[in-house]
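Re: that backbone. Tokens:
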């Protein structure tokens, strides 16, 4: 892949619609059947990648459906032939040895089309209600950096011995590895200073939240100025598109969706109340 190649991807609909959640023209549906149809159609249309976000419980309403990211990614890898499958991962949910093995298995199923997206969690009840730790913001990135360093080496086929603050591993090696490339691609999200340091040190691609382009340029300039080893960092931007034949038709659809926004307010309030206020995504 060229460093300057522009690729387009889609979000998997892991917890329903990405626009208005109460859209009568698009009923809420986070089922595997819907996501399978969506990703197969995206592949047919020439999209390069799909991102499957990870939530164990629905972050908006506990009674709503929620797609599981890693089992879904394995299934999509088997059903597709060209599109890249990226599965998000929250490090506290999986031991690095187990997750690295899962990643290598999907890498084999897809024949080298898999990537993992490290996110350090923002939905506090998702972890706390399961009896799992939800450390403060910067501590989560310290944990995530150690976690990812182990996963990356295991995915590369190394025999890993690691004794750190959080993990103790002795001479652990996973096979098969390296059949299609050195290891699956590593995507990292987050825009705080600890997130940027982690991206620069260990990421292949930095996922940036949608925001004004001048701000995006500043973020990219900051990361490009940081020292790193290996290939230059690549960048991905989250964008939400209304595609219609004319600008006037797109404006009408935008107004329709905006008019439905008030129906989503109670769910958005739940999301905000469950979110760590230190997360930059929620500030910007």
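Recovered sequence:
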């Amino acid at each position: 892949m060229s460093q300057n190649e522009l690729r387009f991807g889609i979000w998997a609909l892991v917890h329903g619609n990405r626009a208005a959640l109460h859209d009568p023209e698009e009923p809420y549906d986070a089922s595997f059947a819907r996501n399978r149809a969506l990703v197969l159609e995206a592949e047919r249309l020439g999209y390069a990648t799909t991102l499957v976000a990870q939530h164990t419980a629905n972050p908006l309403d506990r009674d709503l459906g929620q797609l599981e990211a890693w089992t879904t990614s394995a299934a999509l890898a088997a059903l597709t032939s060209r599109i890249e499958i990226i599965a998000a991962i929250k490090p506290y949910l999986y031991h690095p040895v187990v997750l690295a093995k899962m990643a290598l298995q999907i890498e084999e199923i897809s024949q080298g089309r898999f990537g993992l997206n490290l996110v350090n969690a923002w939905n506090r009840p998702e972890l706390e209600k399961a009896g799992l730790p939800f450390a403060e913001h910067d501590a989560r990135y310290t944990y995530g950096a150690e976690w990812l360093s182990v996963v990356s080496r295991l995915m590369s086929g190394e025999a890993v011995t690691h004794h750190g603050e959080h993990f103790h591993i002795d001479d652990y090696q996973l096979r098969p590895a390296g059949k299609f490339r050195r290891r699956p691609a590593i995507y990292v999200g987050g825009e705080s200073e600890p997130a940027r340091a982690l991206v620069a040190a260990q990421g292949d691609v930095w996922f940036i939240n949608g925001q004004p382009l001048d701000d995006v340029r500043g973020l990219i300039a900051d990361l490009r100025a940081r020292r790193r080893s290996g290939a230059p960092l690549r960048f991905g931007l989250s964008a939400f598109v209304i595609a219609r034949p004319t600008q006037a038709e797109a404006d009408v659809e935008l107004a329709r969706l905006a008019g439905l926004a008030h129906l989503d307010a109670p769910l958005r309030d739940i999301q905000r109340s469950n979110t760590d206020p230190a997360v930059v995504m929620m500030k910007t």
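The domain at 9-283 is CATH 3.20.20.30 (TIM Barrel). The first strand starts at residue 9 and ends at 11.
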